[in-house]
Amino acid sequence: METFVWSIVFGIIGWGYFSFGRKQDKNVFLLSGIGLMLFPYVVDGLTTTIVVGIGLGVLPFVTLKYLDW
Q1: What's residue 27's pLDDT?
Q2: Does the pLDDT at position 42 exceed 90?
Q3: Which of 14, 17, 43, 55 is the Cys-Cys partner for 37 at CB 3.0 to 4.6 Å?
Q4: Extents of the domains making up the chain
Q5: How many angstroms separate the CA atoms of 55 and 48, rounded?
């Protein structure tokens, strides 16, 4: 049950990233949003879901800061 709830939370965040990336032409947010929406279908387990979701959620900010995309 908790995994399902976290999957919904990360899916909503992914939708926001996807929408922002599409409007602003920021491919990092676009791809991260797609990843956040799709990874719960592949990943199994609560801990893995949270770790991967946080990683994908932080990825655009780290990429834009250090790689200047």
Answers
A1: 87
A2: yes
A3: 14
A4: 2-66
A5: 10
